[in-house]
User: Fold these one by one.
Assistant:
Number 1:
Amino acid sequence: MNIPEYAIAWLSIVALGLSAARIWMEVSSRTAGKRERRSGSRRKGRYETGASKTIGDREIQEDEYGICEGQEGTMAVLADGMGRNYGGKIASRIAVETFLEIFEEENAFYNPQYSFRKAFQGANRRILKEMEEDQGAASVGAVMVKDCRLYYAAVGNVKVAVYRNRELVPVSSGHTIDVLARQKYEEGKLTRQEAVSLLDEHRLYNYVGQDGFRDIEFFDKPVRLYGGEYVVLMTDGLYETARWKDLEDCLGGEGSCQEKAFSMIELVNRSEEEGKDNGAVVVIRC
């Protein structure tokens, strides 16, 4: 090969290398741009969360929770099982799995009330189908935080509350006899004496895992969140064991949502009350 041929070959190799480098840089630039957009999208739609639970003095942990984070918002569900042997544990697991399956679809975030109703009805059907009669059931509470608004639904006695301005305010009422008595008194269907006689009765009258289930407590309108609030889901094993003021102190202290959830559950673990129930909490910060 003579000198001109060497020169031509060398120039061809250099040109090919420059062309490949240019293509690589363009692809890298596009990929980086996509990465930045996806990352920004996740930051925009993500809410800080934390969760914890304790078995208390029971032999079986029947509380279960799940959190689903999507581009449109965050959904959290908390179930408090009850039943014979492992019935309560299985029922709460079925309920949580049903909610997570439904809210894995982004479309579920567009119509909160419809999606909540679908999840509750689905959980009720699955529990009845997979378990023997009266073997297991569950109280279930669920929240969705979307566009700085809180949507919630509850069945049984899982409590939904919002912490703002150093105060933890319940937003759900629950399905216990004492709550029903107050409602019937306000409707004029019970006398004051009849209602008062039932105020210490905290027995559940509604839960998933029963024939004829249909009553779901829904939000009248979404709760506006202004930033910095904490949305809290709690089972009765927590809020009936710990003092409400101590729960507020945990939420008002320093730390992440996960650290706050741990500190709230520690209130149950440190309690000297005998026969402590399972306790569980989910904390979401807007």
Number 2:
Amino acid sequence: MRIAIIGGGIAGLAAAYELEKARMAGAPAEYTLFEQRERLGGSLSSEIVGGAVLERGPDSFITEKTAAAELCRELGLGEELVPSNDEARKTHIVVHNRLVELPDGLMFLVPTKLVPTAFTPLFSLPTKARMALELLRRPHPNGHDQSVAELVERHFGQEAVDRLADPLLSGIYGGDATQLSAQTVLPRMVEMETQYGSLTRGMLAAHRRMAKSPSRGTNGGGGIFTALRGGMSQLVDALVARLEPSALRLSTAVSELRRTYDGWSVVSGDARESYDAVILATPAWAAGELLTAVDAELGEDLRTIPYSSSITINLVYDENRLGDLPSGFGFLVPAVEGRAMLASTFVHRKFLGRTPPGKAVFRAFLGGANRAALLEESDEKLIAIVRRELSEILGAKAVPPNVAPEHAQVSRWPRAMAQYAVGHKARMERIEARASALPGLRLVGNAYEGIGVPDCIRMGRRAAQELVETFVPAVGVE
């Protein structure tokens, strides 16, 4: 059994790791991992500067999704897992150039406590009145997909879209609430609307069920997020160390993929090789380009999954040269504020022990679905923009504009974040149907069943396990 893995991000590496496990367990499994860049890991990339861990891409993963932590423990990184410092966790929204803390009782996009909602300056009086009256809404079955903005606006008004849904979802997906699919991104809320009518009543009912659940709190008191002490690159390095070096082909782009009478033909450079199966772990648009010659309709559906681009900027400061910063992990910036930044994290507070004493690290996010042009700006201009906006939002006393950071790091991620746009579920059903008709093909990555690191790990490992079971049914692999 020969399997080609195309794409060396975390999904592709997870698939390769699972195949290596099968090989070591006795399965006649051979694999080749093709990565067009000169490094593996995709957007997982860390750098340690002066003892501070700087993440170019994802800085952590959601603890509740267990696939990432389980893999880390398998690889001997259990002691390196660091929970987020949730005792200090607060989130602020920028409103008219000032920080407003999210009110207590806000369960994602739904206010569930009357008093904090009534007194928060985040919303105007008309919006607060609408939120109170939302409790009276009747069940509203909705058979068609809709945008997140449509769903939230119908229940809480446009201001809730602008100041809540848009910045929160932009921070997670790098997307636009008017484009993201409620059916895919907020399936529980769509169900609540159908069953209860009121999202508030639905969320309160869900909260009561969670409180009674015996599994509540099974994360052992850890944080909402989990990171690695030395950066997310630790996971990449540990995976690569377990793989067969001769199976890894860096700086090797795959230019053609074809079905043959007994498998797949993969062309890279001047070489054409035959494989029994292919795991495509590239962005969906790249997978679509490769598969167009195999199945034009499948290729078109994959190519038309939208993606957004992003920029991360890390600034390291001497804490003694800064003033008092607001409490919490950082802030989110609604698009209506007209700023370049989407969000900023106070890294030195989010994960303790990853920043040396006396240093402060700001991690800023730019780009997103509506700001792709920023990728064309120089590093110097982007750093200047972030420094200016930090001073304007946090105050010149907190971040003096004349105090330069000790270190600045800019990372660009063009077309890196898949967008689950309206109609995503129907598109995925078509993709799954057509892909399943091509024996030996598996599609993995952030375009399909989840955008996070745990999702990609889960998909990569599952794809490899399925292929091993299909081609070598007699070999059991733990």
